[in-house]
Amino acid sequence: MMNIFKPALLATALIASSYVSAAQQTAPAFVRGVADQLTERLNTDRAKYKKDPAYLRTIVQEDIIPYVDFDGFAKGVMGRYYRQASPAQIKQFQANFRGALVGAYSKYLAEYDNESYTVRPYQALKDPTKAVVTMDFKTDKGQVVPVSYMLIDQGGWKIRNLKIEGIDVGLTFRKQFSSAVEANRGSLDKAIKNFVPKQPA
User: Fold this and answer.
1) How crowded is the C-beta side of 24, counted as CA atoms within 13 Å?
2) Rounded to an integer, what distance in angstroms lies between the CA atom of residue 11 and that of residue 35?
3) Gap between the Cα atoms of 190 and 178, Å rounded
């Protein structure tokens, strides 16, 4: 089965890696510009990160984390358990969730091989602080995978959630976490400690 999460994570990284204020650009212009920027960087630095994979984690730390709303994403994944959790439990979940996604970003960036992408025509939402931008990402197998990004303007665009071929990733993770709580007999501490989000099937 093709790993459809690979293009989603890579495309997320492409979108997230911007030093330009999103407030100065439309959402699709932001997406296209930063995607081109990171693609150029990956091509230029290929020999460096192939020799030293740890360099990819540096790219993630510097260019991706600041542009993904991990806290908001994590809150959505916790769902109804967010209201039941203590501040310490929420903090731990956010840290674990961030670590899992950062590891995934690094892994899939390492597999980048000049895959192409296009941005679909954009339709603005009524709420100017939110946007949905869809990219068609062509995999190394030649399959086109549509990835839609739910962005929120927090003084600059940040990724709050995404859909891969119509599959809501945040909702998928939320169901997984709910199952983890049930499997641990309602123990949030155990569920948080052991939870690792799995890619949508």
Assistant:
1) 5
2) 8
3) 12
Q: At what angle do helices 54-63 and 5-16 cross, to 10 degrees?
A: 60
Question: Is-contact 57 106, C-beta < 8 A?
Answer: yes
Domains present along the chain, CATH in parentheses = 5-194 (3.10.450.710)
Q: Could you report the per-residue pLDDT of 84-100, keeping only the tens digit for each?
A: 999 999 999 998 888 87
From 21, 22, 18, select the one nearest 34 (Cα to Cα): 18
Contact 149, 28 (CB under 8 A): no
Q: What is the pTM of this model?
A: 0.75
Apex 197 CA angle, 191 and 201, nearest 5: 130
> Six-digit token pair at 124?
């603005």
Return all residues near 52 (Cβ < 8 A) that are at least 6 apart: none
- At 127-182, the pLDDT tens digits run 999 999 998 877 777 788 788 888 998 887 888 888 888 888 889 899 999 999 99
Dist CA 62 CA 17 (whole Å): 8
